[in-house]
Amino acid sequence: MFAIALTDDAELRPLQPWHADEFLANLDRCREHIAPWVGASFVATDAESARRVLQAYADRWARDDGGIWGIWQRGTLVGGVLLVSLSTARGVCEAGCWLEAEAQGQGLVTRAARIVVDWAVRERGIHRVEWVTRAGNERSIAVARRLGMRRDGVLRDAAPVPEGRADMEVWSVLAPEWTA
Q: Which GO terms describe its cellular component (predicted)?
């Protein structure tokens, strides 16, 4: 399978159901760190649920409506990027990410997301790439900004969270802006 170098010691490659044990180990290392920012359906708690999450993305890939890629640093899965959704009919997709705290500050997510967004725009003909993040997730918002996205607005109380409901920020970049 392909691997794309992100840095001298990190690469981006597809994250498949057979990576469930690595994915679970990655989530176990970053569970508390990412819990405030990712949906409960993503955060697997055992090998079977990890496999289900990855199988759901493999099924999305097969249906041409999403995908997931891992970021490996020095041979260890430390995070990844995903297309939460992809609709070539509508010309819209939603990208997202997760990353262990120890791997932050190296530009790994931005580089990986740039590759996935570029592929969606140039290869799949996507017109609008969205980045939806919980308000206050400054690291995720910084990635959106580095990708050249603009803040479209805030969806008030849009997401259920353990403490009630949370506002979600919507960021986007359009194909003509991306390719300019």
A: cytoplasm
DSSP 3-state assignment of 24?
helix
Exposed/middle/buried for residue 17 (C-beta within 10 Å: 0-12, 13-18, 19+): middle
Residue 56 Cα to chain centre, angstroms:
14
The C-alpha angle with vertex 79 and arms to 73 and 82, in degrees rounded to 5, equals 125
| Tens-digit pLDDT profile for residues 79-116 | 999 999 999 999 999 999 999 999 999 999 999 999 99
CA triple 166-170-172, angle to 5 deg? 165
Name the pTM for this structure: 0.93
Say if domain 4-177 classifies as CATH 2.170.130.10. no
Distance from the first to the final alpha carbon of the chain? 31
Task: Give the three-state DSSP class for 81.
Answer: strand
pLDDT in tens, 107-155: 999 999 999 999 999 999 999 999 999 999 999 999 999 999 999 999 9
